[in-house]
Write a structure and sequence with these properties.
Layout: H1 5-72, H2 84-91, H3 94-104, H4 120-157
Helix pairs in contact: 1-3, 1-4, 3-4
């Protein structure tokens, strides 16, 4: 239909538009892909931080429960030889003790036993062991979190 220089120009123009459209498509798809990857990385960081905070809150709650048990069943004059299991059962706090013991996953069977009565000193020692283990674990998690945050702050300043 078009011949000569006009036809050559129109064919070149159409070919140029086609190449520009393909080039624009590739650039656009690369940009979208990069944006999606950045979004996924941010979501993963947010999820990890949320999980770390919820774990921290759970551990903090366990430490508070242990503190309350330690304060409530502290060693006082007259209760050194009292069976603390029966007191814990009567008050319903035995469930809290068992729950904390399961969540901390610390073996205190050498101090308190499921089958034998235990006194306030044994209970206090078991609670102290669980509390120290929870505080140690919480401290390590906080140190790891600070270690992860430090490189980000260094890269932001550069």
């Amino acid at each position: 239909m078009l011949t000569g220089s006009t036809g050559f120009f129109v064919k070149g123009l159409a070919l140029g538009f086609g190449c520009a459209a393909v080039l624009f498509y590739f650039v656009h798809m690369e940009t979208i892909s990069r944006m999606q990857n950045d979004w996924l990385v941010k979501q993963e960081q947010y999820t990890q931080q949320t999980l770390a905070l919820s774990t921290k809150a759970n551990q903090q709650q366990q430490i508070e429960t242990i503190d309350l048990l330690m304060k409530s069943y502290a060693i006082t004059d007259g209760n050194e030889d009292v069976d603390m299991r029966s007191l814990l059962i009567q008050s319903g706090h035995i469930q809290l003790l068992q729950q904390v013991q399961q969540q901390t996953n610390i073996d205190v069977s050498d101090l308190i036993s499921e089958t034998k009565p235990f006194n306030s000193a044994q209970l206090y020692a078991a609670l102290l062991r669980m509390k120290q283990a929870q505080e140690k674990q919480l401290a390590r998690q906080l140190l790891d979190l600070r270690l992860q945050q430090k490189p980000r702050s260094d890269s932001e300043t550069n």
